[in-house]
Amino acid sequence: MKTTSKTSLMTRFELDLPGWIQAELESQPACWPSESDRMALVVQLSGMNFRKKSGGPFAAGVFEKNSGRLVSVGVNRVTENNCSCAHAEVMAISLAQRRLASWDLGAENLPTHQLVVNWRPCIMCYGALIWSGIRSLVVAGDGPQLEAITGFDEGPLGPDWKKGLEARGISVKTGLLQEDAVKVFRDFRDSGALVYNPSRRAP
Amino acid sequence: MKTTSKTSLMTRFELDLPGWIQAELESQPACWPSESDRMALVVQLSGMNFRKKSGGPFAAGVFEKNSGRLVSVGVNRVTENNCSCAHAEVMAISLAQRRLASWDLGAENLPTHQLVVNWRPCIMCYGALIWSGIRSLVVAGDGPQLEAITGFDEGPLGPDWKKGLEARGISVKTGLLQEDAVKVFRDFRDSGALVYNPSRRAP
What we know:
The structure is a homodimer of 203-residue chains. With 203 residues, chain A is α/β, with parallel strands linked by helices. Chain A has helices at 20-26, 35-51, 88-100, 123-132, 145-150, 161-166, 178-191; strands at 12-16, 59-64, 70-75, 113-117, 136-139, 171-174. The first copy, chain A, has a 5-stranded mixed beta sheet, with helices on both faces. Residues 1-7 and 199-203 of chain A have low confidence and may be disordered. The interface between A and B is large, with 76 and 76 residues. β1 of chain A pairs antiparallel with β1 (12-16) of chain B.
């Protein structure tokens, strides 16, 4: 017997940032001229996110590269939003695009946008970055520390990942406040919080 | 002068399927025992999506692998939702996870889930698939036809992409209704519709 799917299929979903983030940002400046300060904000949010039990230890921000204007922030929301795509970079990119009403942050009528993240993006977010129109990536680090310390799997991103970005007009800077970012990963590990990434269960 | 960001930052966003899809699915069965029929549905939706001007020529469905129950569908919504992450696979995976209230479609209390897509995923959706808990991928094709015919960029996914999935317990089947999928890409090209992917503008 064939039954019809009728109204059972969902046709929309919402993703959100945790409630604490609005209060946290209200006391912060709208403009961040220093890239180091931008990273300090992102690393701070990455630590707050797991300590407040609102997601994994990851955060990202979209800034206007030259002025430093903060366009959006994102934190990891996988477990709280029941969405494995809700990584910090996807949240920040999507919120920036919605705010600017543009699916292309590299559109000609917009200033140059920069994504600041507390570690090298996973393979999904690497692709999300490419499609976003972002023209500058700044990460605290890109070595094995994230996976080694936390146990998260970041996916099969090859050693040429920087070249793949640069070939598409995206500049990459790494090593900004790396020790601060690593400390968050250590704190996360020591907290015993959930490593939600399901790929470790593969046979 | 430092100004505070106050209420200007957005903290939530919604993604949705186009209005025509609900009516389209109401007349369809809830259960799809044949993988070929599953692919036929996905290819049909991929063509409808660009012809109805609701997004690019891409669609995906999440099915229970054994029973064939349709859990969710997704179509590309990049331009209409102003979100470069709103690829068909991200939509289908996220809607399935929301419906099942689980960020892990591979959770032990759930049946095995399969993602059916009208071509090999781009590098972002490749990662999204890995993190989703999906255990089976079926694509109509994985060769250069998509990029060659449409002009879309699918990103620097290496030749070992299948191995990367299989190493994580995700089986891959390719070549199902390939010619039907390619025909949609040709129709898309001939329609003169927008190739929204901004990466082609890299220097």
